[in-house]
Design goal:
Blueprint (H helix, E strand, L loop, with lengths): L4 E3 L2 E4 L4 E6 L9 E7 L7 E7 L6 E3 L7 E6 L4 E6 L8 E9 L2 E4 L3 E6 L1
Parallel strand pairs: 2-11
Antiparallel strand pairs: 1-3, 3-8, 4-5, 4-9, 5-6, 7-8, 9-10, 9-11
């Protein structure tokens, strides 16, 4: 079983940067794609943010809302995926969660809060 754990959230001013981490031991061996989702305050649905496949060529994908500002990467030796977030906007404020979509199932972390203030 792959259990993601997120870290790196916090409060930042508009235009600032944060780097989120998702540590999920075994994500490469279990052929997982790691996805970041976020849920903004007052919204019922989560928004998919970005993904990376960790067991093939490391292909990445981004939501249009974060493209060119966020970058996802993986350190396979550390079983960790990073989400570098730059040029942050107030609308990026949300609970960010990491989800491992693996050959054996889906595994979700508990999330890390990001707050962007003007």
């Amino acid at each position: 079983q792959v259990q993601p754990v997120e870290s790196g959230g916090g409060s930042v001013q508009v235009g600032g940067s944060l780097r989120l981490s998702c540590t999920a031991p075994g994500f490469t061996a279990n052929k997982c794609a790691i996805n970041w989702y976020r849920q903004a305050p007052g919204k019922k649905q989560q928004e998919w943010v970005s993904s990376i496949t960790t067991f093939t060529n490391g292909g990445t994908n981004y939501a249009n809302s974060v493209k060119d500002r966020f970058a996802i990467s993986a350190d396979r030796a550390a079983d960790t995926v990073y989400l570098q977030m730059n040029s942050l906007k107030p609308e990026d404020t949300a609970m960010y969660s990491c989800a491992a979509f693996c050959s054996g199932g889906q595994y979700w972390g508990k999330g890390t809060q990001v707050t962007v203030s003007s």
